[in-house]
Amino acid sequence: MDYEEKVDEMCEELPEKVRSRLVDRMEDEDLSEAEAEELIENTKEAYDKCKFEPGEAIGVVSAQSISEPATQMTMRTYHVAGSAQGVEITQGLPRLIEIVDARKTIKTPSMDVYLKDDYQTEEGAREVANEIRETKMLDVVTEDRIDLLNLVVEFDLDTDSLDNIGLSEEEVISNLNKGRRKYEAESEDGMVKIVPKEDDISVRDLQKMKNKVMDKHLKGIKGISQAVVTETDGEWSIQTLGTNLKKVLKVEGVDPTRTVSGDPREMQKVFGIEACRNTILKEGHETIMEQGLDVDVRHMMLVADTMTVDGEIKAIGRYGVAGEKGSVLARASFEVTVRHLTEASIKGEVDELNSTVENVIINQTVPVGTGMYEVSYNPQTE
Q1: pLDDT in tens, 211-257
Q2: Are the C-beta atoms of residues 334 and 322 closer than 8 Å to each other?
Q3: Residue 381 — pLDDT band, cuts 50, 70, 90?
Q4: Which residues, 6+ apart, have CB-to-CB distance to 49 below 8 Å?
Q5: What pLDDT band is residue 141 in, cutting at 50, 70 and 90?
Q6: What is the extent of the structural domain holding 46?
Q7: Residue 363 is part of a domain; what is its CATH number?
Q8: 0.85 exceeded by the pTM?
Q9: 297-308 and 58-70 helices cross at what angle (nearest 10)?
Q10: Residue 36 lies in a domain
Q11: Is residue 299 a contact partner of residue 61, using CB atoms and an 8 Å limit?
Q12: CA 78 from centroid of its chain's CA atoms
């Protein structure tokens, strides 16, 4: 059966892109004539549901469709399912607010790190996770003490932790002795000694030195405190707490074509504004769906488009989308009314009354639906 001819016969109103995908699917599945007709009818019905009427207030509908279910969202976090060492990530309403506010610093930044085929084993995934996870001195120390007689600080190393991480005692000493410091690190029978360079040193100074050494970076990427290995549908991946996308993409074994950060601003910085837009859409929609709320993805798409349409990420708020509206009355109706009206008066701004909010304020027909058009009757006279 000629599927393309069948599609042309039954649905001329479908866009060319939809029709070509429909034909491809029918050819792949080798459908019978009855099955092809059923698929075409279902596609036409789905396409009709996707359309909206000219003049429909899609902005208001999207805002209402997202905000109303958001009142049912919880103020809680969750742990990654199926993992004994779950990464705790902000979810629910706090996460949604983070996304639409385009926060520069999010509460629990995270990354989904995907691996290349050569590392698709548990051992390979753990090897990459050890390269990514930041290891500090406090992670490999079982006991610390201050020797008041000799005025030195001593650390007992956890050899099992060192083996799991892939660090040797010599590498620990080498890392501790890097940079400008007021001490010299030495190794002695599985113990690390921190010897101050100054002769005249107090116990308080030793305590400060001990705390500084405990916070010393030994291995991995700074800022990534956890890297949990997970398996989903036979594929190994890593979820992190903390993010540094630019450096993670350079780690051997990481698939740079799929690895993403949950921070839209970082995605914009590394991949560009389109990746930022996709992150807002993905994170926002997943946050809503995880709460068991059914919101059409196109509402979130409109929000993501609005936030990134100018090539820069903007918040939905007084310092972003709402604060940059062309209408004086629309800006004034949102927040800080007096300031907006005063500034507009000083600048001599004119409100063209082109949108919904300002027309509601002055009790005038809003340019929505039938209000968008002026219809006049001109009877024909003989």
Answers
A1: 888 888 888 898 898 888 988 888 999 999 999 999 999 999 999 99
A2: yes
A3: low
A4: none
A5: confident
A6: 3-50
A7: 1.10.150.390
A8: no
A9: 110
A10: yes
A11: yes
A12: 16
